[in-house]
């Protein structure tokens, strides 16, 4: 294998290009837009920058956020101090940095649209608006709106989440997360360099309805819309049954990031999984595993062991988290109230924000700490005479 074509220049494609070009392969990266904005916060967790330190050790503009405010109907809000800060980038700036790193590593980057890819015996013929190119292998990083129907995940309407937002003039130091009634999703305010990213993501509701919810929230918060820019995007959010047959690789190709459906089905976070899947794909191609079919199988297994199985588990939890009830109240409301009253529960939420808490172990940890959390809440409410000793 000498030449690899990477279809898409977002974070996943750019990072894969850097890794493969650094190892001496000829890398061709094709993307219609190259660096561009998306309606997201642009947040990177501790899990991301601890594994890939260049994400924090660079000169690219970013914000370090150490406080988030969670709010839910009938529960008010609670401020949570983050021991491990979230890094907030403009997606434009982050993507540009990753593309520059790929180019410095030797990748050839071309701004063009890929219209077709054809497997011809043992090589790919990639057709773009500016010509054709041959490659021994393809990395598919085209995002959720993948125009290439024969490669990458196959998204149905049940496998997507709408995301839209405004870049609003303003300044604040904290992140706001607002849960809404009857919505599998949430509103966010992320502070960026020079403006705020105010957005909403949701599943099972039209984008027009989400936009009305968001604009009502912006008005209630007293944020000025003057000079605000609107963006919208489609995010993968795989249904629990879709993970089993998720098409992440095939003969001569591997999909990474959104093109493989690798997005957290609860939070909508995709940046870490984009970079991590690109890393695993590059490692697999550069490994000593012989044969393309064996490499493809190895990539599937690595994804599953590393994080895909946990995202699948999260997809089974999503509806319970957003629409479920616990102790005669909604789960989001109880989450806010428990975070306010229980240091144990607050530590769980801390780890979720940092990316240290897996979904597979979340239920076990919550049950293990439930008695202690209820005790702490009772003490906070002044019920010490009714609870004379610590339970659990």
Keywords:
six-stranded mixed beta sheet, 392 residues, 28% strand, eight-stranded mixed beta sheet, disordered C terminus, alpha/beta, 35% helix, globular, 9 helices
- Count of helical stretches: 9
Q: Averaging pLDDT over every residue, what do you get?
A: 90
Low-confidence blocks of residues: 381-392
Distance between the termini: 58 Å
The overall strand count is: 19
Secondary-structure element series? EHEEHEEHEEEEEEEEEHEEEHHEEHHH
Helix/strand/pairing class, anyone?
A: alpha/beta
Largest sheet, spatial ordering of strands: 3-5-4-12-13-14-11-15
Output the radius of gyration. Answer: 22 Å
Basic shape: globular
Query: Which range best describes the helical content: under 10%, 10-25%, 25-40%, 40-55%, 55-70% or over 70%?
Result: 25-40%
- Biggest pleated-sheet summary: 8 strands, mixed
Strand content: 25-35%
């Amino acid at each position: 294998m000498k030449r690899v074509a990477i279809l898409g220049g977002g974070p996943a494609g750019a990072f894969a290009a850097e890794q493969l070009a650094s190892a001496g392969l000829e890398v061709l990266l094709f993307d219609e837009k190259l660096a561009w904005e998306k309606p997201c916060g642009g947040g990177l967790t501790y899990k991301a920058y601890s594994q890939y330190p260049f994400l924090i050790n660079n000169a690219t503009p970013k914000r370090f956020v150490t406080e988030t405010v969670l709010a839910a109907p009938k529960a008010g809000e609670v401020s949570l101090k983050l021991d491990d800060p979230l890094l907030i980038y403009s997606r434009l700036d982050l993507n540009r940095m990753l593309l520059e790193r790929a180019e410095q590593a030797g990748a050839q980057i071309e701004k063009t649209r890929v219209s077709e890819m054809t497997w011809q015996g043992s090589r790919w013929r990639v057709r773009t608006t500016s010509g054709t190119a041959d490659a021994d292998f393809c990395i598919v990083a085209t995002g959720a709106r993948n125009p290439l129907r024969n490669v990458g995940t196959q998204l149905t309407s049940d496998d997507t989440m709408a995301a839209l937002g405004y870049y609003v003039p303003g300044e604040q130091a904290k992140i706001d997360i607002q849960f809404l009634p009857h919505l599998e999703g949430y509103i966010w305010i992320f502070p960026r360099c020079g403006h705020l990213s105010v957005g909403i993501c949701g599943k099972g509701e039209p984008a027009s309805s989400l936009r009305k919810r968001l604009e009502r929230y912006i008005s209630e918060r007293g944020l000025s819309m003057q000079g605000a820019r609107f963006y919208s995007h489609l995010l993968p959010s795989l249904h629990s049954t879709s993970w089993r047959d998720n098409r992440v690789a095939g003969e001569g190709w591997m999909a990474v990031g959104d093109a493989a459906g690798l997005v957290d089905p609860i939070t909508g976070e995709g940046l870490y999984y984009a970079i991590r899947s690109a890393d695993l794909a590059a490692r697999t191609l550069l490994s000593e595993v012989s044969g393309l079919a064996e490499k493809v199988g190895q990539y599937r297994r690595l994804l599953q062991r590393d994080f895909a199985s946990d995202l699948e588990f999260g997809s089974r939890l999503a509806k319970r988290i957003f629409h479920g009830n616990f102790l005669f109240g909604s789960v989001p409301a109880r989450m806010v109230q428990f975070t306010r009253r229980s240091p144990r529960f607050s530590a769980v939420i801390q780890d979720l924000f940092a990316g240290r808490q897996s979904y597979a172990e979340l239920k076990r940890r919550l049950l293990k700490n439930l008695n202690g959390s209820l005790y702490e809440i009772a003490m906070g409410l002044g019920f010490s005479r009714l609870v004379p000793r610590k339970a659990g």
